[in-house]
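FORM 12-B: Structure-to-Sequence Request
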């Protein structure tokens, strides 16, 4: 093998190495972007499952006789009357009577309220959120569909809907 052939083989090997590194870098960037969307979607589904749990938890008997409804939608926030145990410092264990889900500076948060609708505590549910949309549509005279859509900063959508009695909505 001559020196010329050796130099040509080394140049060819160097070119292949650069091409492999470039391809690997591009593939890793694509996987990272998809992984971020998948992680947000998984967390969004967990947040919607938490809302699902709130809808399934029955309102306290004392609150059911009140004139106001169990689920209230105001703009892009949703308030559900549902007892939730929580631990706040320094007060210790407490029970909230309502939970309000809203969007604050790109973070989906759950605010816990007492029976007089005073703030007790707040907990972040989902970061990187661009929009929270809550829509209500009537299905028939006795029931309505509540649809909640979460949109990430990158445009990923998580959507869930529930059928609730119309008497529970306001």
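FORM 12-B RESPONSE
SEQUENCE OUT:
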């Amino acid at each position: 093998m001559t020196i010329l052939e050796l130099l040509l083989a080394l140049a060819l090997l160097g070119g292949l190495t650069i091409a492999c590194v470039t391809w690997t870098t591009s593939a890793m960037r694509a996987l990272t972007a998809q992984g971020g969307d998948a992680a947000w979607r998984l967390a969004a589904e967990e947040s919607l499952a938490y809302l699902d749990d709130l809808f399934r938890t029955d309102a306290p008997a004392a609150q059911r006789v009140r004139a106001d409804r169990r689920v209230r939608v105001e703009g892009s926030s949703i308030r559900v009357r549902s007892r939730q145990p929580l631990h706040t410092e320094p007060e210790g264990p407490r029970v909230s009577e309502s939970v309000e889900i809203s969007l604050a500076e790109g973070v989906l948060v759950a605010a816990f309220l007492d029976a007089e609708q005073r703030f007790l505590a707040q907990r972040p549910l989902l970061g990187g959120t661009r929009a929270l949309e809550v829509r209500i549509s009537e299905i028939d005279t006795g029931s309505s569909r509540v649809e909640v859509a979460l949109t990430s900063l990158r445009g990923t959508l998580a959507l869930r809907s529930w059928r609730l009695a119309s008497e529970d909505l306001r």
